[in-house]
Amino acid sequence: MDEILDIVDEHGQPTGKTTLRSEAHREGILHRTAHVWLVRMRDGKPQILLQKRSDNKDSHPGCYDISSAGHIPAGVGFVPSALRELFEELGVLALPDDLVYCGHRRIQYSANFHGKPFMDNQYSRVYYILRDVDPAALTLQKEEISEVRWMNLSDVREGVAYNHFPNCIAEEELTMLQLALES
Fold first, then answer.
1. If DSSP codes are grouped into helix, strand and coil, which group holds residue 183?
2. pLDDT tens track for 47-74
3. pTM for this model (two decimals)
4. How far apart, in whole angstroms, are the C-alpha atoms of residue 155 and residue 128?
5. Distance CA 142, CA 88 (A)
6. Is the distance from CB of 74 to CB of 4 less than 8 angstroms?
7. For residue 86, which of 63, 70, 107 has the smallest C-alpha distance?
8. Do residues 81 and 174 touch, judged by C-beta distance below 8 A?
């Protein structure tokens, strides 16, 4: 089923108009997403949980990505959507107070996936949650995620910078996360 999304302005505010997710990606229409990083500390260093996107995803199939991320349905706010995606994708229950706001970013990207053009134009709010979870205990949404793994944030930053592993992680977002963890 194609999700209905709010069309938003440059500040992520709904304009009162909606679009289908497929149309938003076909036409490059500005819409909202929420990103949540799960973070744990090991030997005084932050580790982040990466998800590997399913090979059937409409964008970036088989690439490592944010712990949990998703489009925000029309009429829904950032925080409820972030918490819903976290539960749907990983089976992790969290409360609004668990989310630590890192900032927001605009994502503009175009490519071809599965032989079709894909234009991403997002306003995203980025959060993290301190939560040490055992990957084997998670309930992965198989249509979305093929696996998860913990990695040191510094290793992920290097891996993304030098393309050491297939990923769709923005260096800008890793910097945002690092700064939020240090504050």
1. coil
2. 999 999 999 887 788 999 999 999 999 9
3. 0.93
4. 18
5. 10
6. yes
7. 70
8. no
- Total count of residues recorded for the chain: 183
pLDDT for 3-20, tens place per residue? Answer: 999 999 999 999 999 999
Q: Print burial letters for 82-120: b (CB count within 10 Å at least 16), e (below 16).
A: bbbbbeebbebebeeebbbebeebeeeeeeeeeeeebeb
Nearest-5° Cα angle at 168, 91 to 23 = 85
Q: Where are the beta strands (DSSP E) in 96-136?
A: 100-113, 116-130
Amino acid code (one letter) for 80: P
